[in-house]
Sequence to fold (242 residues):
Amino acid sequence: MNDRHRFWQRALRLLALGVPRGASPALLGNDQSLQHESWLRSLQKEKDRFIDWHDRLADIPFVIIDMETTGFSPQQGDEILAMAAAKTVNGLVTGTYMTLVKPEKPIPEHISDLTGIEAKDVVFAPPLAEALRTFVPFISAGVLVGYHIGHDLSFLRHVLWRHYRQKWSWRFVDMQPIVSLVRHPCPTLDDALACYGIDCPRRHTADGDVEAMVKLWAILLGELRELGIETLHDLYAALSRH
Fold:
């Protein structure tokens, strides 16, 4: 088998897996292609996972996520600096993930002041495209949860499309309207943590915020049960009426 034949065999196999249009041809002919192929297989496997609407909340794997970013708009060039997540079942952590991300542009000073992430901290961090290969399969294990999770999802959707021409379509729930449903409106995560007496000594760090949200989520699951909200269907229905 000549090199040209091998190249097209590999290219066709990757295309069958859904390799994004516009991916670098070099990706198909070097060692990184196997890593990319494995990442896509993992992504597709998790994409095929099905969580029934009538599954009990206590049985569903929920993945709590948080990102630290340089701003609010990935479309305007704001970047991800850190990504963290925790897999949970019935409020108990079954796995964690954390990585810093090396940005393409200098980190603004006010962002370093807020997050504590400086240029020296990300010198050896993976670039975003590389970090996504482990982060995405990890968070694909269940329903995503976050406080004002729309911020995190906007970045996730943008970078997946930019780097891999992949669309994000997993289920998610936002803690903020749940807190409003079971207790009273808490516009920010700080408000919710104060309301429930949860300390967050490393606020505005991705893993620190996830750790605090894990505690909050465990409490919310208990309060939802007290309201008779037992399944994912119950939760979405209650939120739609609230």
